[in-house]
């Protein structure tokens, strides 16, 4: 099997898909883990990434079926909007001596919830490239672990140096949320008639998360006397 060109072509496709699709997951993990004390950030990244990969294995079996359930992606998209809002709203009130850290359990829970929603389409893409080859499928999932861990670690460092990345990360989650909502099976007819709604929903999701999240963070900051 290893000597066949199809296997290696499939593997290259899966690696490429993982590189492209692991970015948004890495952003979510970094946003969730940055609210932890530094010594717990690595644990959150490892546990969150590991649990997310186990979740993806389960999703691989049921993803195609789940994506055909009406309103599931609408609910998932709304959940992502909430997660994006929370991650941004918590961010600005974390300066100085009064910095309050989140808990490891809460960070891992946030990572899992976001990954559950964001991975449905990702899993479908990897499964399609594997074409039923379980070795390729397992390799694809295994490759995604170091990509997400490395990406998350890098993103946390960048977020510490460039706070604007936190806002861009939250906007990305809002963008994916808008896309997820419009991808729901119940909206296929509407989307087919109005293809522009896909991008309009994505932009609206990104703007909503940033505007509401920043406004909430500003209120919290004033309440704490910053």
Secondary structure elements and pairings:
Layout: H1 5-33, H2 38-66, H3 72-89, H4 104-130, H5 134-161, H6 164-182, H7 188-193, H8 197-223
Helix pairs in contact: 1-2, 1-4, 1-5, 1-6, 2-4, 2-5, 3-4, 3-6, 3-8, 4-5, 6-8
Task: Label the structural class.
Answer: mainly alpha
Largest sheet: none
Helix content bin: over 70%
Let me know the average pLDDT. 83
The rounded Rg comes to 18 Å
What is the count of β-strands?
A: 0
- Taken from the alpha-carbon principal axes, the silhouette is globular
Alpha-carbon distance between the two ends = 62 Å
H and E order: HHHHHHHH
Low-confidence parts: 93-99
Proportion of β residues?
under 5%
Please give the count of helices.
Answer: 8
Task: Provide keyphrases for this structure.
226 residues, mainly alpha, 81% helix, 0% strand
Structure report:
With 226 residues, the chain is mainly α. Helices cover 81% and strands 0% of the residues. The longest helix has 29 residues, at 5-33. The N and C termini lie far apart (62 Å). Mean pLDDT is 83; it is low at 93-99.
